[in-house]
Specification:
Residues 11-139 form the Mycothiol-dependent maleylpyruvate isomerase metal-binding domain. It comes from Streptomyces violaceorubidus. The protein has 8 helices and 6 strands. It has 228 residues and is an alpha+beta fold. Strand 3 and strand 4 (181-184) form a beta hairpin. Helix 1 runs antiparallel to helix 5, helix 1 (4-22) packs parallel to helix 6 and helix 7 packs across helix 8 (199-206). It is globular, with a radius of gyration of 18 Å. The relative contact order is 0.12.
């Protein structure tokens, strides 16, 4: 059962870690490249702020974004801002998300995200938690996949393995960190491929943050996860 109140507290903690780390940067650092192709750190921070507002829209029954083009334009508009403006926007948009999530609501209701994707309202705090944690790593400022909370790493691996389950381009795959086991890819009685590795590397591969060189593969080549 999803505990959205617990996840909201985790979002708050993750956001504070991010803001503390950002406070050590300067304006020049914000303009430098992030680990995401084509995006500066300013692009990542602008995306994080606008994502918080987009999830407020979802919780309040509005479209997540006016359009894909408008989403991209907002990020491009906000990316060049100086550090102080970026910090204020990330902090204030995060507070708006927390305030919207604290209102009494039917957390079992279905909400709509981008591209017709639907989910339970109760999962919105976890989706925000994932945005904050993974994009903190994407900034390339000293926070790595190995630094993620263990509970988050396990849950995000659960989420991504389930997301790619049944995907026609992913072979039937068994994932394991030596203790836990996940199944993903096309349906089959037995997996074609087994992928083994540390939790951070499994998550990094599934989330498109690592190429998987630290993973051991049996039964075929390492599958290529679909883009998120």
């Amino acid at each position: 059962m999803i505990d959205h109140a617990h996840d909201l507290a985790s979002v708050r903690d993750a956001t504070e870690r991010l803001l503390t780390a950002l406070g050590k940067l300067d304006n020049a650092s914000v303009t430098q490249s992030s680990r995401l192709p084509g995006w500066s750190r300013g692009h990542v921070l602008a995306h994080l702020a606008r994502n918080a507002d987009a999830l407020v829209n979802v919780l309040e029954g509005r479209p997540m974004y006016v359009s894909g083009e408008a989403r991209d334009a907002d990020i491009e508009r906000d990316a060049p801002r100086p550090l102080a403006a970026q910090l204020a926007d990330v902090r204030e948009s995060a507070a708006r998300f927390q305030d919207a999530s604290a209102l009494p609501a039917d957390w079992s209701r279905t909400v709509e995200l981008r591209n017709g994707i639907t989910d339970s309202a109760s999962r919105m705090p976890f989706r925000r938690w994932a945005e904050v944690e993974l994009h903190h790593v994407d900034l390339g400022i000293g926070y790595e996949l190995e630094d993620l909370p263990a509970a988050f790493t396990e849950r995000e691996t659960d989420f991504l393995a389930a997301r790619f389950a049944g995907h026609p381009e992913v072979p039937p795959t068994r994932l394991t960190d030596g203790t836990r086991v996940w199944r993903t890819g096309r349906e089959a009685d037995t997996p074609e491929v087994t992928v083994t590795g540390p939790p951070a590397d499994l998550l990094g591969w599934l989330a498109g943050r690592r190429e998987g060189s630290a993973l051991a593969v049996e039964g075929g080549p390492l599958p290529v996860p679909p883009p998120l």
